[in-house]
């Protein structure tokens, strides 16, 4: 490759747009989703996770898509060895800060969740708060599940927490307005593609004249689809719940929590 070709190659790489999740998961996301409230819920949710995963300290736990670390830190406080993986620089920086303030140690790894390379290392794994279904093809999402299966020791469990697609479609609203705790105005416009099974959401954050827009695209999987993918990855569904509070799963449930076990 000559110098001119090298320059053009550098220009193409530099001009490539960021994926939506790289734009979305920043400190502003914490404002949108009320990080303080999410932190307050973490202890009760970890109570459920301990039971669902059948774990006790000092088990090794993988938190995939850990965000600002609310579950990873709570697990570490209880004596677990935790590895938190996320692609967001800002959210991981906040997670490290909170962990240091609380005096716990977590192994934080900045990485695309499709590119984990752990092998038979963990006694349990979690992927929570709709941190799954981001990629353009089922093949790419399957890579995530394959990576989880590879990371788990045989007989260990995985908890996946996503939107309850079937129930969500029954309650579907194409537009919604709401206000954050800090007084920001947020508008959400939603569109569901029934052929591709994807939910597309435009979020507009308005704060004292400042406006920021995000465009999200998430694949919403049904239980049969997840069952097939998990089996192909070497796991089987053990149980289903309607939330991280251990509630029953059904059409009325807001969430779909899948507990799977590695063969």
Secondary structure elements and their pairing?
Layout: H1 3-15, H2 20-24, H3 27-32, H4 35-53, E1 60-64, H5 70-77, E2 81-86, H6 89-102, E3 107-110, E4 122-127, H7 138-151, E5 152-163, H8 165-170, E6 175-179, E7 185-193, E8 198-207, E9 210-219, H9 223-233, E10 235-241, E11 255-262
Parallel strand pairs: 1-2, 1-4, 2-3, 4-5
Antiparallel strand pairs: 5-11, 6-7, 7-8, 8-9, 10-11
Helix pairs in contact: 4-5, 7-9
Helix content: 25-40%
Number of strands: 11
Query: Could you tell me the radius of gyration in angstroms?
Result: 19 Å
* Mean pLDDT across all amino acids: 93
Counted by DSSP, the helix tally is: 9
Going across the biggest sheet, name each strand in turn.
3-2-1-4-5-11-10
Distance from first to last alpha carbon: 48 Å
| Class from secondary-structure proportions | alpha/beta
Would you write up a description of this structure?
The strands form 2 sheets. Strands 3-2-1-4-5-11-10 form a 7-stranded mixed β-sheet, with helices on both faces. It has 9 helices and 11 strands. It has helices at residues 3-15, 20-24, 27-32, 35-53, 70-77, 89-102, 138-151, 165-170, 223-233, and strands at 60-64, 81-86, 107-110, 122-127, 152-163, 175-179, 185-193, 198-207, 210-219, 235-241, 255-262. Helix 4 (35-53) crosses helix 5 (70-77) and helix 7 packs across helix 9 (223-233). It is 37% helix and 31% strand. Strand 6 (175-179) and strand 7 form a beta hairpin. The model is unreliable at 6-14 (pLDDT under 50). The chain has a single domain, classed as Rossmann fold. By secondary structure, it is α/β, with parallel strands linked by helices.
């Amino acid at each position: 490759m000559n110098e001119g070709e090298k320059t053009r190659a550098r220009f193409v790489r530099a001009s490539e747009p960021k994926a939506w999740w790289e734009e979305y998961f920043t400190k502003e996301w914490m404002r949108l989703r009320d990080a303080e409230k999410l932190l307050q819920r973490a202890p009760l949710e970890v109570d459920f996770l301990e039971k669902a995963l059948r774990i006790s300290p000092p088990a090794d736990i993988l938190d995939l898509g850990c965000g600002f670390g609310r579950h990873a830190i709570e697990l570490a406080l209880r004596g677990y060895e935790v590895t938190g993986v996320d692609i967001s620089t800002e959210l991981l920086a906040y997670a490290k800060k909170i962990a240091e303030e609380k005096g716990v140690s977590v192994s934080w790894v900045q990485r695309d969740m499709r590119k984990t390379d752990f092998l038979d290392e963990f006694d349990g794994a979690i992927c929570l708060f709709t941190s799954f279904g981001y990629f353009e093809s089922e093949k790419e999402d399957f890579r995530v599940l394959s990576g989880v299966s590879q990371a788990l020791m045989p007989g260990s469990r995985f908890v996946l927490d996503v939107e309850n697609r079937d129930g969500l479609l029954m309650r579907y609203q194409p537009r919604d307005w709401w206000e954050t705790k800090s007084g920001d105005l947020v508008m959400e416009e939603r569109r569901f593609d029934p052929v591709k099974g994807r939910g597309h959401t435009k979020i507009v954050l308005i704060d004292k004249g400042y406006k920021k827009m995000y465009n999200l695209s998430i694949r919403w999987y049904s239980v049969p689809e997840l069952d097939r993918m998990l089996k192909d990855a070497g796991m089987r569904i053990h149980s289903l719940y309607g939330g991280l509070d251990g509630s029953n799963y059904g059409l009325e449930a807001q969430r779909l929590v899948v507990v799977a076990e590695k063969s």
